[in-house]
Structure formats: structure tokens, C-alpha cells
Design brief:
six-stranded mixed sheet
């Protein structure tokens, strides 16, 4: 199963495939950005000098596409204000430091934790109770978009009825293996999370879990865990980038086509990432808000390579240690859609699925030459666009012309830049055009 003849197959570079999930030690100091979702940053509900306990709310959502923010540790609020972020832009955040007593209390609470609800209890929850719990827990899409999950599970009035819940386990980005790791190690918890989401959506909704066929163990484990659930099907898909894109996944798993500019719900589909389903399980069953996530740290010269369960707000330096001398680029996410970082200052966030420390061989700088009119960028574009033209129009500032040629439909997958014989920064210029079109 796949989405068609477009897309590319870059080197997978799954250097940490098969690596077990390691727990990062609970930090004694966290720097938590209040901008943890696609929408507006949360508003701080604490002030310097306040004492907070693990899981306490520290930032309140501001609108439907904003998300609550909680603390993963107990401690004293040291400041509420500007903090450094890995992208170099900075943000408003909350710095919390734990005393010895706070730290010991947190470690004990982790050891003593017990579920709040039994499997039978899940069946008695109403859809509204589930959605409210997810909203309070500050859960966002953990595949990278960070769209609030509760909002996605509550389509606007007049939207088509949801028929399919698609769970994205493709993880098509090079290097990343965190989703693979949780599917191998926690398939039962993920399936329970899916059951909870299905209950929120309705009894007639079917679920398909899409996993690329380069993850055979994950497919086996998830298939076994889903065997007793008649509404959940695990479906292997062909390994091809960008298989995990929303419209690509819908096409591959359901055969339906999402129209340009439309959302998956227009075809009766809602999509969630496997890590998001796991976060829903933790929120509903254990009462744990989204205060940690599993992420991949990788790179050929990275001594700290692996899959880690990391509390949100953990300083990046605590994770990677000393930066390899050969590092020329640091990336948040995968190499195709990930964002280059200014350095390892700042801390982890909900949307950080990977931290890549790349050497010059892994991220070679190519000289840019004039377009040779080969047409490769058009051939590989999964959205059927003309990347060479959109990039040129954006570069020239002809934003109305770019908008007329559907620049807003670009999913920024990077297939065009990857395939360009001339080394042109196609997707970068298209991003500029999209941004300017939105401003207009």
C-alpha cells in the first residue's frame, strides 16, 4: 500500500533502529516554553516564588489551537519570562528548580503511581469526558504539527461524519526511530489509547494503523496487540517518503483523496500519531498530562545516539553531553522536514521528535546552479505542484501568481529540493512564498 508514484526514497539512516527506550533522569531544573502548540502560547498561571508539584498546570491554553502546559517536576518557580530556545528565536517560558526534598518526592511518586481507571472504566467514559481530559492534559499531535488533539477530535458543526481514525506509524523521516520504539515496546498501551480515541469519536468509526514495512517488529507487535479489537486494523505500507504525510496516508490506507486546501475530515477521516495515542492512554488511564515524550537522538558521530523518554523542559545539553567536533548541523526532527537549530541551548518541547547532530558527510552543502529544466521536482511532488515555478515566483516576490498556482498546498516535505540536480533551495523559497501569501 502506498500513495502513488510520487515521492522519493532517501537513505533511511535509521541508526537507532532496535535501540531500546532509555529513561532520561528526572531533571532538577527545567526551562519550559509556553509556546508548545501550533496556536497561541499558553498564558502563565504561576509567578516567581510559587511552589509547584509535578503535573501542576503552569500555562493555560489561549484558544482552540493552543494547549495547556504542565510541569514534569516539583519545585520553585524561579522566573517567568524570556528563555533561550533551540531555534534561536527565544520564547516566554517558566524556569523551575527542584530542591532535594522535591526531587526525592517526585522519584517516590513515580514509584508509587497507580492507574486511575480500569479497562472496564474506560467503557463507561462519555466522549465528552474523554475529550475534556485530553484538553486538560495539554495533548498535541506528536508527529510534529503540535495541533491540539482535543480540537481535532471535535470537528466543527457541519463537518462530515468521521468514518475512519487513521493512526500514523509510518515514521518515514530519515534517522527517526522513536515511533518505532514505542510500537515495539508499548503496543498494548498504544492500542488502549486508540480504543479511548475511538470511544470519543463514536461506535461506528473504524481505525487503521499504518506502519511502513521497514519496521517488521513494530508491525508484528502492534498486530498482536490489536488482534482482539475488531475495529482496529494494522496495515503495512510501502516504505516511501512522505508516506506519513496526511494526504498521502489517507490515500494509501483508505483510497480516498483529500482535495487541495481541504482537511482529512472532509473525507470522513481523522489522523493521529502513534505517540499521540500513547499520550492519550497516559492522560486517561494514569492521569498524567503531556509532560514527557520519547525522542530520537542520532547522527553518525553522536555518542549519545538512542531513543530516550525525556521530560519536557529538559536542557538539550543534559541529553547530548559534549557536542561532537565534527557537527556542522543540528536538526530538530528528521532531515527532510526538520528545522535546523541555532545550537544546543534551550530545552526539549512537546514537538521535538528528534535531535540530530550531523557531520559534513550527512548534510553536504551543494553549490546552487541554474535550473536545468529536468522536471524532477514536478515528478516527485506528492501534491502535484510545480516547485521550480513556485520557488521562482516566491523569489521574485510575485506572491499573487504563486498563490494562484496553489503555493499554500505545499506540505514542505522537501522532495523537490532533495531531487533537484541544480541544488536549488526550492522548498526554502516556497516556504517564503507561503508565509508572504498568509500575511496578505
Amino acid at each position: 500500500m502506498t500513495f502513488g508514484r510520487t515521492g522519493v526514497h532517501p537513505p533511511e539512516m535509521k541508526l537507532t533502529a532496535g535501540s531500546p527506550i532509555k529513561d532520561m533522569p528526572l531533571p532538577r531544573r527545567v526551562e519550559i516554553s509556553l509556546a508548545q502548540s501550533l496556536g497561541r502560547p499558553a498564558e502563565a498561571v504561576v509567578k516567581p516564588g510559587d511552589h509547584v508539584s509535578r503535573f501542576d498546570l503552569i500555562g493555560e491554553a489561549q484558544g482552540a489551537v493552543s494547549a495547556n502546559v504542565h510541569t514534569p517536576i516539583s519545585g520553585t518557580v524561579k522566573s517567568v519570562g524570556p528563555i533561550d530556545t533551540p531555534d534561536g528565536h527565544g520564547a516566554t517560558g517558566v524556569i523551575i528548580e527542584a530542591s532535594d526534598a522535591d526531587h526525592a518526592c517526585d522519584l517516590q511518586s513515580i514509584c508509587d503511581a497507580t492507574p486511575l481507571i480500569t479497562p472496564d472504566g474506560i467503557g463507561r467514559l462519555s466522549p465528552q469526558e474523554i475529550t475534556d481530559t485530553i484538553r486538560r492534559a495539554g495533548i498535541v499531535g506528536l508527529g510534529g504539527a503540535t495541533f491540539p488533539t482535543a480540537t481535532k477530535l471535535s470537528p466543527s458543526p457541519g463537518s462530515p461524519r468521521c468514518e475512519y481514525l487513521l493512526i500514523n506509524g509510518a515514521e518515514c523521516e530519515p534517522y527517526l526511530t522513536c515511533d518505532d520504539a514505542i510500537m515495539r515496546e508499548m503496543p498494548g498501551e498504544i492500542i488502549t489509547g486508540i480504543e479511548i480515541i475511538l470511544r470519543a469519536l463514536g461506535d461506528d468509526v473504524r481505525c487503521i494503523v499504518g506502519i511502513e514495512d521497514n519496521k517488521p517488529q513494530a508491525i508484528r507487535e502492534m498486530t498482536a496487540a490489536a488482534r482482539s479489537h475488531s475495529r482496529i486494523t494494522v496495515m503495512p505500507t510501502r516504505t516511501r517518503y512522505p508516506q506519513g504525510g496526511e494526504k498521502m496516508l489517507v490515500k494509501a490506507l483508505t483510497g480516498r483523496t483529500i482535495a487541495p486546501g481541504a482537511l482529512p475530515i472532509s473525507e470522513g477521516v481523522i489522523i493521529q500519531n502513534v505517540a499521540t495515542a500513547l499520550a492519550v492512554y497516559h492522560a486517561v488511564v494514569w492521569g498524567m498530562p503531556l509532560v514527557e515524550r520519547v525522542m530520537t537522538v542520532s547522527g553518525k558521530d553522536c555518542q549519545a545516539a538512542g531513543n530516550y523518554r525525556v521530560p519536557i523542559g529538559t536542557p538539550l545539553k543534559d541529553i547530548v553531553g559534549t557536542l561532537p567536533d565534527t557537527t556542522v548541523r543540528i536538526v530538530n526532527g528528521g532531515t527532510m522536514m526538520g528545522r535546523a537549530l541555532a545550537g544546543i541551548q534551550g530545552s526539549t518541547a512537546k514537538g521535538m521528535s528528534g535531535l540530530l547532530l550531523l557531520n559534513s558527510q550527512e548534510t553536504p552543502l551543494r553549490d546552487t546552479t541554474p535550473c536545468v529544466r529536468c522536471g524532477r521536482c514536478v515528478e516527485v511532488c506528492p501534491m502535484g505542484l510545480e516547485p521550480y515555478l513556485l520557488a521562482k515566483l516566491s523569489q521574485l516576490g510575485r506572491i499573487d501568481d504563486a498563490a494562484a498556482r496553489h503555493v499554500a498546498d505545499c506540505m514542505e516535505c522537501g522532495c523537490c529540493s532533495y531531487s533537484c540536480m541544480a541544488g536549488r533551495r526550492l522548498v526554502d523559497w516556497i516556504k517564503v512564498g507561503k508565509s508572504m501569501a498568509r500575511q496578505r
